[in-house]
Write a structure and sequence with these properties.
By secondary structure, the protein is of the alpha+beta class. The protein is built from 13 helices and 10 strands. The structure holds 6-diazenyl-5-OXO-L-norleucine.
Length: 311
C-alpha cells in the first residue's frame, strides 16, 4: 500500500495539467496548484500516506458529509421533508431547480441542500454552539483535537458569497429556512472553512467505513445511506463520471480535497487544489481512478485473484 501511494503521488507530481484552483473564494485563489497528498486509514488501524499528506487545506464541501451526519442526528428522517435524495445533474451552486421544485433542494450535497442541512443542525442553537458541535464531531471522528476552522477563509467566503445568499433567500421565500439567512450563511461558511490534512481527513472519514474497529458515530443504516448519497451526489454533475471511473462513494470540495470510502476496508483522502470542469479536484480524481484500478477496489465488484494488491 505504501508503494502504491508513493507511486500515485509521483505520477500526480509529474502531471503538468493540474487543473484550475477555485478563485471565487478570494482567500483560496492564491493556493499553489503544485501540491498533492494522499492518505488512507485502513480498517485494521494502519495509516499510510504520501506526498503533501500533512499539509492542511480547506475541506469546503467535504464538510457537508459531517454536517449531514449531525443534522440526521438532530432530526432523523424528518430532514427528507426539506431536502431530496436525487442527483441534480447541475453545478454545485445552481439555483435552477429550486424554482421548479418549490424550494426543496435535490440533495444535501449541492449548496442549496447543504444550507438546509446547516439550518437543521443550527436549529435551537447559536451559530457558535452549532459550530462547536460540528468541530466536536469532526475531532471525535479523527481522534484529533487540533482540527480547527480558518477564520480568514470563512470571512472571505461570507464577503463574496452572493450565490449562497441568493440560494438561502430563495429557500427562505419557500419557508425552507428556519434561522435567519445571515446566521445560516455564517455557520455554513465556517463549516466549509474547516481545515484538515489528508491524514486527518482520512481518519475523520473512518466513521463511514463499516468495520468493527472504526468510530461508531452513526448507525450502520445511516452510514450506508450517507455512502449512497456520496456515490450518487457527492461530485455534483460529475457524480456519474466519478462512480464510473472510481466506483467508490466520494465527496469533493473546491479546496481540492476528496474523501473516498471503501466500505469495510478503508477511508481515503486525496488532495490537490486544481479543479476539473465540475469543480472537483482534477489530480485527486485521476489519483483515485489509478488507486481503484490498481487495488481492484469497487463497490460494484470484488478484486479478482491475481489482480489488485494484497493488503
Ligand atoms: O459554498 C461554496 O461555494 C463552498 N463553500 C463550497 C463549495 C464546494 O466545495 C463545491 N465542491 N466541489
Amino acid at each position: 500500500m505504501q508503494d502504491l501511494l508513493s507511486e500515485i503521488a509521483e505520477a500526480a507530481s509529474a502531471n503538468p495539467d493540474k487543473g484550475k484552483v477555485a478563485s471565487y473564494i478570494p482567500e483560496l485563489a492564491g493556493i499553489d496548484p503544485d501540491q498533492f497528498g494522499i492518505a488512507i486509514a485502513m480498517a485494521d488501524g494502519r495509516v499510510f500516506s504520501a506526498g503533501d499528506a500533512d499539509v492542511p487545506f480547506s475541506i469546503q464541501s467535504v464538510s457537508k458529509v459531517f454536517a449531514l451526519a449531525l443534522a440526521l442526528g438532530r432530526v432523523g428522517d424528518e430532514i427528507w421533508q426539506r431536502v431530496g435524495r436525487e442527483p441534480s445533474g447541475l453545478s454545485f451552486d445552481s439555483i435552477l431547480l429550486l424554482e421548479r421544485e418549490n424550494g426543496i433542494p435535490r440533495n444535501p450535497f449541492i449548496n442549496a441542500g447543504a444550507l438546509v442541512t446547516t439550518d437543521t443542525y443550527l436549529s435551537g442553537s447559536s451559530p457558535r454552539e452549532a459550530l462547536g458541535e460540528l468541530l466536536r464531531f469532526v475531532r471525535a471522528a479523527a481522534d484529533d483535537d487540533s482540527i480547527h476552522m480558518n477564520e480568514k477563509v470563512a470571512k472571505s467566503e461570507i464577503a463574496t458569497g452572493h450565490r449562497n445568499f441568493s440560494l438561502a433567500h430563495y429557500l427562505a421565500s419557500h419557508g425552507n429556512m428556519r434561522a435567519s439567512v445571515d446566521k445560516v450563511l455564517g455557520t455554513y461558511c465556517h463549516q466549509c472553512a474547516v481545515e484538515m490534512t489528508c491524514r486527518q481527513l482520512a481518519l475523520a472519514g473512518r466513521f463511514l467505513v463499516d468495520a468493527p474497529a472504526m468510530p461508531g458515530l452513526v448507525s450502520i443504516e445511516r452510514r450506508r445511506r450517507i455512502n449512497a448519497l456520496m456515490m450518487t451526489c457527492g461530485h455534483y454533475d460529475g457524480s456519474g463520471d466519478f462512480a464510473f471511473r472510481v466506483g467508490m462513494p466520494g465527496k469533493s470540495g473546491v479546496g481540492g480535497g476528496i474523501l473516498v470510502i471503501s466500505p469495510g476496508r478503508a477511508a481515503i483522502a486525496v488532495w490537490s487544489p486544481g479543479l476539473n470542469r465540475y469543480g472537483n479536484s482534477k489530480l485527486g480524481t485521476e489519483a483515485m481512478e489509478l488507486f481503484a484500478h490498481r487495488t481492484g477496489w469497487s463497490v460494484f465488484g470484488v478484486p479478482h485473484p491475481g489482480r489488485g494488491i494484497d493488503v
